[in-house]
Amino acid sequence: MRASLDIAFAALSDPTRRAILTMLLEDDMAVTDVAEPFQMSLAAISKHLAVLADAGLISRERRGRVIWCKLEPDALRTASVWMQGFGQFEPVDLDDFERFLEGELAPEPEDGDGT
Questions:
Q1: What predicted TM-score, i.e. pTM, was given to this entire model?
Q2: What pLDDT, in 10s, does the model give residues 55-108?
Q3: Which of 38, 39, 84, 94 has a 20 to 30 A CA-CA distance from 48?
Q4: Backbone angles phi, psi at 93, to 5 degrees
Q5: Which of 52, 46, 50, 47 lies closest to 10, judged by CA?
Q6: Residue 78, Cβ neighbours under 10 Å: how many?
């Protein structure tokens, strides 16, 4: 497990690779489409994609002349389980949080005796 965590976190350490993963959340993308928003060569993007693929975070598939990239969300499961072990990353119930804030920020009722 340690080796897979090291590889996943190393892949996630680069902001360009994190941006690529975010883009792939939407849908599968051709390599050229992945490269479009970045100010770097297609070769540089291909290296980033290779790191992500080696970590198992994405898969690549050739369809005709085009290479498509697909997010592999299950690859982050080990990292997610590891982080949840610290207890700091529990999901927050936003409805409960909103009710708490409303209670804290509500004006205090005035006493009827004028004090």
A1: 0.71
A2: 999 999 999 999 999 999 888 888 888 777 776 655 666 677 777 777 777 777
A3: 84
A4: -85, 105
A5: 52
A6: 15
